[in-house]
Amino acid sequence: VTLAVVFLSFGQEIEVTQSNPFKNSLGIRFSNITGYGLSFSRQIFDNYTFKAGGIVFYDEYIKGNNDSIIQDTKNIIYDYGFELQRNFFKSGNTRVYMLGGIYFANEQNKDEWNGVASTDQYEDIIAGGVGIGVEFTFKSRFGLNIDFGYKFENSEGEEEGIPVTKNNTQLGLGIGLSYLY
Questions:
Q1: How far apart are CA 40 and CA 92, in angstroms?
Q2: Radius of gyration from C-alpha coordinates of the chain
Q3: C-alpha angle with apex 71: 66 to 72, nearest 5 degrees?
């Protein structure tokens, strides 16, 4: 219901003008609602922008020498999300928008001490939420966005062989920097 209200509400009629003719952006961001990492956005209609982003990384830490490994830690983390923004105010180099989005993430952590597994856990996360944001354009090609939103997160996984389900509700901030083209 909240998403329907956000995206069907009144929006100022906007036309792409010579002062801001760019419909795409590429950047980095952290969002409480749609995750973090590299991001790409595309203005799909006059008042709507679609944004996607994510990151994948692998971290391995080995302590010891070839004959006796003291600690061997491996972490794999990925995160990707999607967001739909609806402008409800735009003037000059500033726009205010409502947003709704979802993200998916996975975290795996394997840790061994002297050949004995001390930590072996994984977590699959799905989260979604709604919020409000503002984007400032500067130097005609760069954008800075700040958003505030409400998120519900559900995760299922395993911690040391025990199945675990977590539900989390948060209010939080997001920030991003992008190049417009």
A1: 22
A2: 20
A3: 80
Q: Where are the alpha helices (DSSP H) in the chain?
A: 2-8
pTM over 0.85: no
Q: How open is the CA angle 68-70-72, to the nearest 5 degrees?
A: 110
d(CA 92, CA 19): 7
CA–CA distance, 146 with 95 (Å, rounded to integer): 11
The model's pLDDT over 108-124, given as tens digits with 9 standing for 90+, comes to 888 887 777 777 788 99
Q: State CA 38 to chain mean position distance.
A: 9
The strand ranges marked E within 21-161 are 24-31, 35-43, 48-64, 69-91, 94-113, 116-138, 142-159
